[in-house]
Amino acid sequence: MGGRMDGVRRRFAASVALISASGLLAACATEGGSGTTLTWYINPDAGGQEKVAENCSTDDYTIAVQVLPQSASEQRIQLSRRLAAEDPEIDIMSIDPPYTAEFANAGFLAPIPDDLQSRLEKQSFKGAVDAAVWDGRLVVAPFWSNTQVLWYRKSFAEKAGIDMTQPVTWDQLTETAADNGGTVAVQANKYEGYSVWINALISGAGGEIATNTDRGINLTVDVASPAGEDAASIIERLAASPAAPADLSVSNEGTAGGTFGGPEGAFMVNWTYIWTNYDATQPEVKDDLGFARYPRSTEGEDSRPPYGGIGVGVSAYSQHVDEAMQAIECITSPDNQGVNAEITGNMPASAAGYDYPALAKIYPPRLLALFQESLDAAAPRTVTPYWSDISGALLASWHPPDTVRAQTPPDSQQLIEDVLHGRSLL
């Protein structure tokens, strides 16, 4: 454990010098006339976290928000640089699941008290807890838990004659879309969203990207496996098919939504916010919007939808750890999870959060049930302090998608192992 922590710290040390004397993203954690100000660094959203911060401010402290960059990897870089410098001006952080283990292993997160851990574990979905645990302890408080479902145009499915009440495979979608002039919209740009897709495909085929993560850089990489071969085959077939969007190699969540809303829109995998995405701009698409369980990688095997979300952690270097722990308990309460979900479309990390009355007015009961079913079945990315290295190596070897072949999984596995052991640089 100590050796791994030292390694993580060394990786951050080189970037600490890039912080200006005044600090990137100026923040405050000072005593004021009305009490303490706690600074919460948040990922960009539609105002949900800001509203929750207002709800959870008290006579003893005010929670102020600072917005991090749009990209999850850039969020990681900005926070890690300052935490490596033991910056006391960060109190609370919204952390993307793949970086939770990295921050915890580096000693950046204040330990959550046992009683609060217990309450959080009891209220949260299992997938949310699994993504928030490192070294046997809950290290962040699950706030929202996102999952992807299969969105489809009902008119297209009817025209193509595909029964969307039954499980469908990726290959079925590709063939159906290609035969009927439609597209399958995904996230395949050279960014974390593509790693999410690869992970879901491998997990859906019964595999994992890596196991034995307690061994640090000596973990077991399992990309070169039958599941990895199945994942590569799915990507290869879609990329070579007329069903592939023209912008496949640069597609992200937003461009996928645009493709789906266009004249060739047929199928799309994307996050929960899509249900309200077209309300104001394309009501005709909203009226035509269907939803189903994430596609299967292999016939007869249940799909493993992607898991995303946010956990809220307290900086080990905050001067107000006790107050910050009280704040994150309020922030991640089921009611405030519901408030955030109503505003942003990012769904709660707890079943109780789904009982927030406003959600039943926005989402059909069947869709809320599908979200929760998908969370129960979701496949988080490998929980390891070295995920950023693994993801970078995946992207280097699987992108662009039209270059993916049967040789990609073994090539990818070799590159991941070489990067982890310092034999290659990304």
TrEMBL record:
Keywords: Signal, Transport. PROSITE patterns: PROKAR_LIPOPROTEIN (PS51257). InterPro entries: Bact_solute-bd_prot1, SBP. Gene3D superfamilies: Periplasmic binding protein-like II. Residues 1-26 form the signal peptide. Pfam families: SBP_bac_1. Belongs to the bacterial solute-binding protein 1 family. This is Extracellular solute-binding protein.
